[in-house]
Amino acid sequence: MRSKHAAILKTCKFLASGGTKITRLPVDADGLVRPDGLLRALQSSVTVVSVMAANNVVGTIQPIEELAQFAKLHGVLFHTDAVQAGGKIPLDVNRLQVDLLSLSAHKLHGPKGVGALYFRKGTGLAPIIFGGGQERGLRSATENVAGIVGFGAAAELARKELNQEAARLAGLREYIATEVLRNFPNAYLYGHPTKRLPGHLSFGFRGQEREVGKLLDALDQAGVAVSAGSACSANHSGEPSGVLLAMGYDAESARGLIRVSLGRFSTQQEVDCFLDVLSSAVSTLSDTARSASLAGLTNPAEVAFA
Amino acid sequence: MRSKHAAILKTCKFLASGGTKITRLPVDADGLVRPDGLLRALQSSVTVVSVMAANNVVGTIQPIEELAQFAKLHGVLFHTDAVQAGGKIPLDVNRLQVDLLSLSAHKLHGPKGVGALYFRKGTGLAPIIFGGGQERGLRSATENVAGIVGFGAAAELARKELNQEAARLAGLREYIATEVLRNFPNAYLYGHPTKRLPGHLSFGFRGQEREVGKLLDALDQAGVAVSAGSACSANHSGEPSGVLLAMGYDAESARGLIRVSLGRFSTQQEVDCFLDVLSSAVSTLSDTARSASLAGLTNPAEVAFA
């Protein structure tokens, strides 16, 4: 198992409470699952391996095809959480050779509250919801027809535009990365430099990791929505990202991640606006931090942000 | 437990496979749960009682307030499946004193694929889906926002129009019942004559129970959609309704039920059209059945319907 998302983590926690043994796969400094770690795990009595196709926090794209092949050779089921990757990178279940793949409609501009689970024929699945036998008996309930149709339409559009959108978004991402690194000497990037989601960039400011909350507030007030780590939890805990800790970041750096997500409607103009807003927000932060430091306060988080 | 719907039956079957003891509550000839049966069941180590607020097959409305009170006195949780009753009869959780109540949006003209579970504060519930902690941790997943809003709007409308709609639909129902009984000497009604959903009527034709399928096909071809028993199963099994067997009907009569559901958009004109179509469909059936009998065929189902 290697996933940051609570949908997998909490499910594993529940399984563990029932006695199932959970093994976390190690990742390298870029967030890539280490094949040797998977091979070691496969020596024990593993029944299913789950690896995110692309990480939601650092954007790293995993070598799913290679990892799934290892699992297949050991007769172990392979699941990939492709929620972040769906509509953004090609996902061919036959090429990837995964047994199970999950998707979420709203991540590819479809309606909220609809998802899909692909499973290869012959994969033994047992339902947890019972009733009228809909969805081949695996998810009984009157189907969310409007949502399903919307998901289908969104997926079709995403597929059609995937190549050109991926190229466009990767261009915008590289532009932001270059500007951020050029403008802020203490800026650094998280995740793999090239094996990453086209519209996903994550960076931090060395020495200012504790001020991410204020930075986000300032950006929010200027109409720019970016995330600190994972946004997929209803209750933000302020805990450092587990995947960043696994990548070797200390708790401080793990808390300092700023995630920029670009999508179909993001434009060059918006990106330039974001960079402007970011510059003035960071300069204000530095001043505040310096004032705080001058005033003898040890914790910058205690300083009200003007 | 007294419910016809697979959502409850299949869940009980699953629980039973894990060792949970399931007790089916007896009903009387009108489909009403017998209070003495519930009291007997409450003597054993029951933890939760589930009774449908109104039955989907025969339309009978259960005395939920009275039954929930018995459960309460014995310190047993009481759940009611109010999917059929929602928006059609008043449902006040404080008056009914139920601990849990389930609803489905599409049954009150809301969108398909959305439901609600009311639970009284302090009712100990454990999730079966894990993730971001949405819905107070009980149903993790990005919410179906459009569906939820549509459900809310539909529920508000249903509540506003409930009294006048109930009176109007009960009037149409009584009109159909009177006409059916007057026009067909072998017609009979199922369920309680008055304690029933306003827009729900179920009837059969004595001696012609096996021809319900053909009757429904003929009605369908004439543009009238009625159901044979429960329509809430994706795979129609042709099995006789369990609740009808429990009410004392033999398998033959249990298979002969025709269910007419009237809703907000049903009109007197449509009802008259239905009665015309029904008359001609039934007369054709009788002829076919007679011809089949004359031709020496023993199974009328083998006769093609013209």
Query: From the alpha-carbon coordinates, what is the Rg of chain A to the nearest angstrom?
Result: 21 Å
Largest chain-chain contact?
A-B, 34 and 34 residues
Helix/strand structural class of chain A: alpha/beta
How many structural domains in the coordinates of chain A? Answer: 2
Give the second-level CATH assignment, the architecture of the largest domain in chain A.
3-Layer(aba) Sandwich
β-strand percent of chain A reads 5-15%
Q: State the separation between the terminal residues of chain A, measured CA to CA.
A: 43 Å
Succession of helices and strands of chain A: HHEHEHEEHEEHHHEH
CATH superfamily of the largest domain in chain A: Type I PLP-dependent aspartate aminotransferase-like (Major domain)
Q: What shape does the CA trace of chain A take?
A: globular
* Largest beta sheet: strand ordering of chain A: 1-2-3-4
Any chance you could write out the topology, listing elements then pairs?
Two copies of one chain form a homodimer.
Chain A: H1 6-17, H2 35-42, E1 48-50, H3 64-73, E2 77-81, H4 93-96, E3 100-104, E4 115-119, H5 145-183, E5 187-189, E6 200-205, H6 212-221, H7 242-246, H8 251-255, E7 258-261, H9 268-294
Parallel strand pairs in A: 1-2, 2-3
Antiparallel strand pairs in A: 3-4, 5-6, 6-7
Helix pairs in contact in A: 2-3, 5-9, 6-9
